[in-house]
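Q: How would the structure tokens look for this protein?
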Amino acid sequence: MTNKKDETTEKTINFSFRIKIGEQEIELKGTHEEVTKTLENLPNIITNVQKAFESLKPKTIATLTVKTEPAQQTKEELKTPIQAYPKINNVVSCEDAVLRLLETDWGKWRPRTMEELNDAIKANKLKYTPHTLEATLNKLADKGMVRRWNTNAGFVYILAEEKPAGIGGETTSETHRGAN
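A: Here is the predicted structure in token form.
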């Protein structure tokens, strides 16, 4: 036989209250009266708990990106290529123009595509069609005056280097052909 007083005491001791704020959770257990008194002091408890958990929080880093608008450009400035092309003068043919461009520091710096050579020719106010330029580049490669090879960007061209043939001090042009 269970005493009625013991059941009442058990029920009042098993009173609990749980609150969750963000990622933090507090649970209060005790008698109804103890939990109710503690709840009256809840603002202070929450402040103390937040301070306690503050050191456990990972620090976040804020990134600020500032976008600026480009300065207004005139139509003429937009047409001007960013890259400075070499100046060549007194050109008599497309072959002459290509060889002169490839002899400059710009042409020696790295192999150039047909499009780059075409842009450099246009920058010098010369008028050769892309078909004429392509035929000229093929002719110069066949003669061994320029080297060409295929890359992801297409064929690239650079001046051929002269090297001794070995007998009699003659020189021949080095020709390197990729997938022609």
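Helices lie at 4-13, 32-40, 42-54, 75-79, 94-103, 105-109, 114-123, 130-143.

The chain has two domains: 4-54, 85-173.

Upvote if useful.
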